[in-house]
## 1
Amino acid sequence: MTVPGPGAHLLVTGGAGFIGSCFVRDLLARRDGTRITVLDKLTYAGNRANLAAAEGDPEAAARLTFVRGDIADPGVVDPLVVAADAVVNFAAESHVDRSILDPAAFLRTGVDGVYVLLEAVRRETERAAGGERDRAPRMVQVSTDEVYGSVAEGWSVETDAVAPRSPYAAAKAAGELLASAYHVTYGLDVVITRGSNTYGPFHHPEKLIPLFVTNALDDLPLPLYGDGGQRRDWLHVSDHAAAIAHVLFHGSAGETYNIPGSAERENRDVVARILALLDKPWSLVRSVADRPGHDRRYAMDGTRLTALGWTNRVEFDEGLAATVAWYREHEEWWRAARGGDWDAYYARQYAVRLATSATADGPTEGG
Ligand code: NAD
Ligand code: TYD
């Protein structure tokens, strides 16, 4: 089975979101002839402005097409897959807290949407087998370390059982299990990536790092869940996007690849570093009621991806400092991203928590 290479035509679903738009911008900036069609529903998290750098560059713009639509709609998806050499699926509802408040959209996109994409790829795989097209399209299903559930000690390897614990993680696990089943049953050329917690520019301000940076810039309280002792392994968005491209071009069909960040930190320590970078006091931090079912720790082993030839480039302290600087310099972007249902969501998620909050214990490593 041949894999797509530079110059291919890619269908990038969810390409107006945080990681998908970085993938699109960075791949087009390689100037290797790759053509990209972005299919994005433009939910509250999708933002056409995330693609402005590519759309404003005539050479890149000539290789980029934007289609607004839903991956769960076969009428939109089918013709786009006919024209694609590969599908890279970033589209998902991506926020754990919203999945706890309202899981329906997570299942619609994460399960039905993935099914619609797989069916379209299946038809094209059959056409390739019948000699009606050169090569079956490859599909990359972008998944997450959260499918492993909370990892008390050690590091998850790709062969570990999945044990998702939030509606978000369960929808992601369902999507990737469907993708693997289509590989086994119908011979689809599927590869799966499991990325760890990602940070960087264009990250929606609902997530920990951008929420705390933007609230701190406004001198608003920073709602730290529970004792803040949860651990995440932080991966810069440019490394995550490049690792996905590496798996697209070099991964083996049917295989799953962890993409760790190799920067495991306690939330409290991340928050302390953000405050230090902004010269803001720890007194902004409030200890609030915990997220139900909050996973204590994620940590993955990256041996398989290293063996495939990929190594991350961005070191966490430098990446975080650059990210904080980006938010300082792009106030217009993040204020606009706090549009739509932001005020209602923020009140639902945080009003009672903040009203009943307590002083938070300081960081363990002095930030
Ligand atoms: P995001 O929420 O910023 O972007 C998701 C994008 O998908 C948005 O542009 C949205 O408009 C679009 N979308 C949502 N539903 C759609 C639908 N039905 N049809 C078409 N488009 C739709 O998310 P992100 O952080 O960029 O995450 C991208 C992918 O990476 C997701 O699959 C997520 O599960 C996965 N992932 C994220 C992280 C992380 O830390 N952010 C880590 C590992 C894996
Ligand atoms: P988040 O950015 O939502 O990513 P994920 O749930 O995918 O790991 O959260 C990262 C960590 O930060 C997680 O342990 C939950 C915590 N957190 C808070 O303490 N307060 C908040 O307001 C948010 C959004 C997250």
## 2
Amino acid sequence: MAKIKRVQCREILDSRANPTLETTITLDNQITATASVPSGASIGSNEALELRDNDPKRYLGKGVLKAVYNVENNIGPKIIGLDPTQQEKIDQIMIDLDGTTNKSNLGANSILSCSIAVLKAAAQNQQRKIFEYVLQLAQKFQLREKKLTIPTPILNLINGGKHGTGNLEFQEFHVIPLGIKGIDKQIQAAVEIYKNVEKVLIENGAVHSVGDEGGFAPNLFSNLDALEVVARAINLAGYTLNKDVYLSLDVAADYFYKNGRYTIRDRSAPMNTNEFIEYYRQLREQYSLLLLEDPLEEEDWRGWSHLAVRFGNHTKLVGDDLLCTNLARVKKAIKEKCCQAILVKPNQVGTISETLKVIKIAQEAGWQIIISHRSGETNDSFISDFAVGVGADFTKFGAPARGERVAKYNRLVKINEIITEKKSND
Ligand code: PGA
Ligand code: ZN
């Protein structure tokens, strides 16, 4: 049985030029595995803490040397000598060592980089592909048994809110190629639509730089205009809306919520919850949205359940900032019937074990599982293997552009080739 021999960590850059962590675990049989962690911009207030140095002399305070130190000097000595297949035990050791409810002592970034590196080292040691090993781990955590399949991608083609240029309030405008079979064809469709979005924006004279997740960050009059641009692009690319491809939104409503009111450029006056729900009803009538993420602010539990009941199963509400991959919040949302889907981000909670426990509870409630990247990413494609291994329904990895996003889509295609036995490399 191989044991963890060395834990090393370094500061690297993410896709937004912010420092993040890269941890390498070496086993006593010389197997090494490396994992890096992503970073969000629109962060729910109930997320575990991402530890930064706050030293204004380095990277405008965003350095992560304290977190690097924690990995090498605090976590490392406690997990060296352990068997990397003991994921839950190792995660618990880190949780106990931290000793806080939000990982504010060691930092969720330090802990997660170790948690993922441990998983990867164990997979390699067993000569399994990462997604196969995640599947095995998911069975240990009693997740719903599923055949290995590739989740349907949710692709973010227009970036607004905190990821855009300050022009649109809604954060993400998605296409979901649910009616198209096969991940390769789904990605092809999304790319063709993406290119047509660019074309439409050029025709409309709307500036089309890209935002944090590789989607366009255009200069449009309203959020509705952005939906219309995507709908047109679907048509121009030769696909049928609500048959081949569906629309969805990550509204990330906290961004434009203040004192009980939602302010968006589509309406001349700020809206209260009921008025905003009525706005969504009209929007859905027009575009038949498949998913609606964070439509209301993160503490409006009553508003969420009201909207979820109203929309039923046709447009599923997705909890991201509402839930923060946090078990207690997920349980509350199940009880109060606030959503029908969860956005799962391992770095919102900080360990793989806790993430798996959240997925299990959400699956048992009949929710759809969406495994998500963060807006600040690295080229690590672990999240693709993770999504396949846990049997997720959807993935959310941004636009089909920019290296850090494309790495994840390319990995999904490769996994598909492996599981359909077209190719056997990893
Ligand atoms: P974030 O955005 O990674 O900046 O939090 C992603 C999301 O809100 O889904
Ligand atoms: Zn979100």
